[in-house]
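Researcher: I'd like a structural prediction for the single chain below. Treat it as a standalone chain; there are no partners to consider.
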Amino acid sequence: MADSTRRSFLIRATSSGFAMAFAPLAVQAATDFGPAAAFQPTIWYDMDRSGRVTVHIIRAEMGQHIGTALARIVADELEADWDTVQLHAADSDPKWGTMVTGGSWSVWQSFPYLSQAGAAGRQALIEEGARLLGVAPDKCSARRSVVSGGGRSISYADIVRRGRLARSYTAEELTALPIKPADQRRLIGLPVQALDIPAKTTGAARYGIDAQLDGMVYARPKLPPTRNGCSVIAIDDRAARAVPGYLKSLALTDPSGTVPGWVVVLASSYPAAIRAADLVQVQWRTDASLSVSEADLQARATQLVDDTQGGSLVVEDAGVDAAFAAAASTLERRYTTATALHFQLEPVNALAFLKDGVWEIHTGNQWQSLILPVLAKALAVPESQVVLRTYLIGGGFGRRLNGDYAVPAALAAQALGKPVKLIWTRADDARFDSPRSPSVQRLSMAFGPVGQITGMQHHASAGWPTQVMVPAFMPMGKNGAP
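Model: Treating it as a single chain, here is the predicted structure.
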């Protein structure tokens, strides 16, 4: 993270309006915020000459109306008329910092810098509006995209068209900007029209599965027996050749190791790809993971739960052992949960193609910053040559935190030399899920002489996809184990 004195907020007048940008807080990944740095200040919203405000959303919209929530933060502090606000789903770009939507983080992590951005914009508009009105700034106020003072008023649109908006703020000045007290908010916490609803109602909304490109080839994956440890020995597509529109089947070579042993079946239409994939026969080489069952996972979890020397200690309380030693009675129960699939409404999908030396991946995704380096490794290109184009998501529930499904689409497009739209069937999606693992949990209670609870122990064992996908996100326990 760069020295905070180099981070700033900038309002810049342009021929088309003014743009407001400032460096994000520490939750946003960045290396340098100086004017000469490659990573430029993040632009969270802009206003055109008509006064329309476009808020740039870096969080995935999957039915939770996150765009509306974040735009309200900006618009409330900006004192923008809600009817003038629109959303723009941002594509991946280093300037946005870390792009991730999960863990219920989006609103509370975004609130500080978005509210500061809105407040800074409001202050700049009031100052310039006051100048145009010939009134002292401290005699002016803003509301619903209008600055008023001294019995006169001027719209934000007129300020943008006629004014000279140029104001910068240091990080310290941003932090010191007055943010509205809760009782003065006019949008946050109050009923407003969700901005994504009209397009979803009319059918104009675009989901990843809707992405198309002239000349693209459709594909369906032919999934190996296991997610890891497979390789292709032979492909027999003789029966598939009878399907009208069938093109070929490709065994993918993946330098990233994301989709080992994968075959994609290509066709001129998706129905043809579905039918052909059912007919293609693949012989795989597998490893020992092929024989692992749900019962094996539960048995391993039980071993781990019963191992008092292993695991991560989340809560350390020396009094627990003493409470159990002195307990008048104890009770212990074991609970298990099974593997759970996401079954989101929209099956995972991705459209990939090379354009002007940059690989474009069109898909809905919850963690662009995580899958970008994986895609770059798979394609053997720098990250700067890969971009994710953002679409609405038809249900995520965490499944699309893992962007693994974009890798085979990109590899197929690279191998074929044409745009490839890879779509999973519902059955494929269930087999290739990133599921919640089974778990075993042991709960023990200690009771005093009259039945009062004196101690409790909760031991749990489950798979952690976070440890596989992004180990740095795993917190450390009291005993130093993740």
